Each structure stands twice: as C-alpha cells, then as structure tokens.
C-alpha cells in the first residue's frame, strides 16, 4: 500500500513543476526553432498592420478562423525570443491545465473507492494514461501549436455542463468552435440534448468571437475577415474529399490523418519515392471514392449522435463529470476524423477519451472494450514511434493511417462504454452512492472481466 502524499508534498511538487516550466520556457527558444508559431506571428503582424493575412499564394498559409488571430496579438509586442518563450510557457500551462481538467473529471470515480486499493490502482491507472497520452500531449508543445487551447476549451465545456452550468458550457464550446471550427460538432450534440441555454450561448459566442477581429482591425478587402477566410480556404474544401488548396493543403499528405485524407491515400496509387508511400489497397477515384468517404463520415456522425444522447448518467448521479468527459471524448474523436485536415499535433485531443476508458477499466468495470482501446493506442502510438520501430516502418504506418485507426478505436471504445453504462445506470448509481467506507467497497466496484461491454 502506498502512503498518500501530505499537503506540503503536493505543494512542493507543484512549485517544482512550475519552476521547471519557467526555466524550460526561457531556455528552449535558444535551441528550438521552426514550429507553427512563426506562421501565427507572421499573420498577426500583417493583421495589426491592416494587411490581408489569408494568403494562399504564400505557403505555409495561415488557415485558421479569424478569432484565432486574437490569441497571438498580445505576443506581437515582443521580439522573437519573447514570443517563442511565452508560447512555450503557454503550452506548458495548457498541458498542465488539461491534466488537471482530466483529473477533476475522473476524480469522482477514483475518490469513491476506499482503502487499501485506492492509491495503488490510482498510480497504476495514472501510469497507463501517462504512457498512452505522452506522445499526443507532447506533440503540440514540440510543434509550438495552439491545439491544446482548443482541447482544454472543449473539456472545460464538458466539465461546466456536468455541473449544470449551461452558460459556461456553451461559452467555452463556442470559443473552441470560433478558434478551430471543427468543435462546431458540439452544437448538434447540445441541440439534440435539448439544452437551449447552452446552444444559444454557443451560437452567440461563435458569432461574436468570429466578428471580433473586425472590430479592432478592418480587413483591407471589401469583406469581413470571416468572408476572406471562407472564400480563400474553406470554399476550396469539399465534404467527402481530402483537403487540397494552394499554399495550404495537398490531397496526398501522410500527415493528414482524417478520414478523407487517409481514405484518399488508401484509394489513390502513387509511385513510392521521398515522402510518397504507395499504401493504396484499391484504385478508386472520383464519385466512388467520394461516396465511400461520405458513408464513413455519416457513420461517424451517427455514432456521435447515438452515444451522446441525453441520459441519466449525464443528467444526474455522482459520476456526471466522468461521463461528460466520455461524451466530450467521442466528439473530439469525431472532430479529428471529420476534419478536412487532421495533423500530428491535433491528436492531443485523444487524451480525454484515453483517460476515460483507462479509468473505466481500472475503477468501474474490466471489459474487453476498454482493454481493446488501450491496446490499440499502445500499438498505434508509443510502440509505433520512430525511436522504437525505425523511420521506415513508422512513415509507412503513418501513410496507411495509423493515427486514424487509433482515433476510431478510441471513439468506438468510449462510445460503447457510454452505451453499455447507460443500460446499467441504476446499478452504477447504487455502487457509487453507497458508503465508500465499506470494507467490501473494492470488491463491490470491480466486476470480473466481461467478454463484451
């Protein structure tokens, strides 16, 4: 049995982590260059100068919604070292925030368990989650991207909804959608659950934040910044097809792990050479390929609708935050799969569904569904890294859609657990509302491995 940490030890660890983050943020800009932040800052400088920053003819182009530009405006007053250092510190803080957010949302499950197994199983589950998520949470930090901001906003929206704060839930969800567009997938979920206040707040937040950049700096064109963004980039994409646009995307791109991107590589033979890897399993083009992709995308959206319906687990009971994290995890997976372009750093979104089915396995019910999810993430994540399998195998696996498969596995595992627990909601309520000090509490919570959820 592990002795619990004292309060002073927790504070000391926290102070140590903060100091390490500050030192790392000050040192890393001296050695690390590149990343996404120079693209953001170049666009920001143009915005502040009243120049057009949506320029597809100048790759790499800035392709994000107008609201995102406001997140880098405060950095523009600093020289390059300053904005790089602040970006590192921001991402370290967001990573810590995501970890804290996930911990708060799973804690009702863990805290309901009594000694002596609590600390031991908590450490085991935390270790497994860390191993499975480390690659994904490091990626946006390494590439100096802003994706952690979006994931934290979506997770924060789910936490607010679990606490019956529909206004904050809608506001945070709308903010995420204004910054990245793909979180708009949250809106049909809120509408379907008949959460009127959250839906209206969500829509209002998207509208206000999208038009806010025009309030500060007007576009040089005879249009809003949102219209420029749509006409120059969004209009170039098509549902059911891999994203392709001058200066922004190419149809065959191994980094694009969305369903359209992966299916394009699997259905379009190419001559292997350089970054191109012929992973095609069929030569399907035009309408047939688009129809297949559309059917898969409809299935993904239907799965989200099916698993995120309003249920007793989301409306009441001691585990609301945990199951809201599961619902947010399904939506995040859907965002990655349905997006025109899902690149490496975007997959930090997998941290919430991974935490959900891992904690579910160790603290609620040991099922093959959760175990399959953990296994898929391990095989497609840590065990498929270049350091372990080499660059050749890793690049071929990436071209074949390894991250796409992992995302599908995460979404299915999380969704199936949500569906199965919905049927067992009364039993779950009884288990977690009973006296947690019961000497048989541990045995009551853990059921034998099941063949299915």
From TrEMBL:
Pfam families: GT87. GO terms for cellular component: plasma membrane. The keyword Magnesium does not apply. Residues 434-453 are annotated as: Disordered. Keywords: Cell membrane, Membrane, Transferase, Transmembrane, Transmembrane helix. InterPro entries: GT87. The chain crosses the membrane at residues 12-41, 91-110, 122-138, 168-190, 197-218, 291-309, 321-338, 344-363, 368-384, 396-419. It is a multi-pass membrane protein. Its main location: membrane. GO terms for molecular function: hexosyltransferase activity. It is found in: Cell membrane. Belongs to the glycosyltransferase 87 family. This is DUF2029 domain-containing protein. The lineage of its organism: Bacteria, Pseudomonadati, Planctomycetota, Planctomycetia, Planctomycetales.
């Amino acid at each position: 049995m592990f002795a619990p940490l004292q309060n002073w030890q927790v504070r000391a660890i926290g102070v140590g982590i903060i100091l390490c983050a500050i030192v790392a943020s000050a040192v890393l800009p001296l050695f690390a260059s590149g990343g996404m932040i120079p693209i953001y800052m170049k666009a920001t400088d143009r915005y502040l100068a009243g120049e057009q920053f949506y320029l597809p003819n100048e790759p790499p182009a800035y392709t994000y919604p107008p609201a995102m530009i406001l997140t880098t405006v405060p950095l523009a007053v600093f020289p390059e070292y300053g904005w790089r250092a602040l970006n590192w510190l921001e991402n370290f803080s967001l990573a810590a925030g995501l970890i804290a957010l996930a911990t708060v949302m799973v804690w009702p499950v863990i805290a309901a368990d009594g000694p002596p197994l609590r600390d031991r199983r908590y450490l085991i589950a935390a270790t497994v989650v860390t191993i499975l998520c480390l690659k994904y949470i490091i990626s946006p930090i390494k590439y100096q991207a802003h994706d952690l901001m979006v994931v934290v906003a979506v997770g924060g929206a789910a936490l607010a909804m679990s606490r019956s704060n529909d206004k904050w839930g809608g506001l945070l969800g709308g903010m995420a959608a204004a910054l990245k567009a793909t979180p708009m997938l949250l809106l049909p979920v809120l509408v379907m659950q008949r959460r009127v206040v959250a839906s209206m707040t969500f829509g209002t937040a998207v509208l206000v934040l999208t038009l806010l950049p025009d309030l500060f700096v007007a576009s040089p064109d005879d249009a809003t910044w949102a219209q420029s963004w749509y006409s120059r980039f969004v209009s170039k994409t098509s549902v059911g097809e891999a994203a392709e646009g001058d200066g922004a995307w190419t149809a065959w791109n191994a980094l694009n792990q969305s369903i359209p991107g992966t299916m394009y590589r699997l259905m379009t033979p190419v001559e292997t050479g350089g970054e191109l890897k012929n992973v095609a399993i069929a030569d399907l083009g035009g309408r047939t390929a688009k129809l297949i992709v559309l059917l898969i995308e409809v299935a993904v959206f239907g799965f989200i609708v099916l698993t995120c319906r309003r249920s007793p687990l989301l409306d009441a009971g001691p585990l609301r935050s945990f199951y809201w994290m599961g619902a947010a995890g399904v939506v995040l997976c859907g965002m990655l799969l349905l997006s025109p372009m899902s690149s490496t750093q975007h997959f930090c979104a997998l941290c919430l569904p991974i935490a959900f089915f891992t904690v579910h396995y160790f603290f609620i019910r040991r099922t093959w569904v959760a175990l399959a999810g953990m296994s898929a993430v391990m095989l497609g994540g840590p065990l498929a890294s270049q350091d372990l399998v080499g660059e050749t195998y890793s690049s071929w696996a990436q071209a074949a859609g390894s991250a796409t498969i992992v995302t599908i596995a995460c979404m299915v595992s999380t969704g199936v657990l949500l569906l199965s627990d919905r049927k067992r909601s009364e039993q779950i309520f009884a288990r977690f509302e009973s006296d947690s000090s019961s000497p048989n509490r541990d045995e009551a919570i853990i059921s034998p491995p099941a063949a299915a959820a």
